[in-house]
Specification:
5 strands, globular, 10 helices, five-stranded parallel sheet, Rossmann fold, about 55% helix, alpha/beta
């Protein structure tokens, strides 16, 4: 079984990459760290830990629950808060990733396991993968997508990018780079060539 770590930067196209890959190789198992984090943030016990660590500023004054908007603003404006949040969420996410990898390795359902890890290089998130895959764009494209897709203002978009390693550094560290600046078909072709090198397509 092949195991890879998929990473990139905010708005570089990792989700699109995973969707295209599964279209061409539906038996592949893709573990999405962002989905796990999103689920964890809905857990009342996890919310309580976060509020205890970061304070009431991340609580929604109306519902009394954790405010995703306030949390985002806090962690992208305060490096210490971001580190604290990662220390709560990352070990739990890695544990689930390892469980998924082990389950895939002991079953006959797939010969390809990919974990989508946004902060792979920043956090040292290691689950025993063979190689790292990077979906890359220019910083300008990231900013444009963040503002047009998610509606973030310039300050928040810049802060979100500054919280990650520059794409140029990730390119230097990645084993395989997929450039996602052009039409979608260009990315599809890169994925197909990659899968062909693994010799797992029917």
């Amino acid at each position: 079984m092949y195991s890879f770590a998929l990473t990139g930067g905010i708005a570089t196209g990792k989700t699109t990459f995973a969707r295209f890959l599964l279209e061409r190789c539906p038996s592949a198992v893709v573990f999405d760290c962002d989905k796990v984090v999103s689920r964890l943030l809905n857990d009342q016990l996890i919310q309580a830990k976060i509020v205890s660590a970061l304070g009431e500023s991340v609580v929604d004054g109306v519902s009394g629950n954790l405010s995703r908007t306030a949390l985002r603003e806090e962690v992208f404006s305060n490096k210490c808060s971001r580190t604290t949040l990662e220390e709560i969420l990352h070990p739990l996410t890695r544990e689930e990733c390892l469980e998924s990898l082990a389950e895939t390795a002991t079953s006959d359902r797939s010969s390809l396991f990919i974990a989508d890890v946004p902060l792979l290089f920043e956090s040292g998130f290691d689950f025993g993968y063979e190689s790292s895959l990077l979906v890359a764009t220019t910083r300008e494209t990231q900013l444009e997508r963040l503002k047009s897709r998610d509606g973030h203002d310039d300050a928040l978009a810049e802060a979100m990018l500054d919280a990650q390693l520059p794409i140029s550094e990730k390119v230097d560290r990645a084993d395989v780079v997929f450039w996602n600046e052009g039409p979608e078909q260009v990315l599809r072709c890169q994925i197909l060539r990659f899968l062909e090198t693994l010799d797992i397509l029917n």
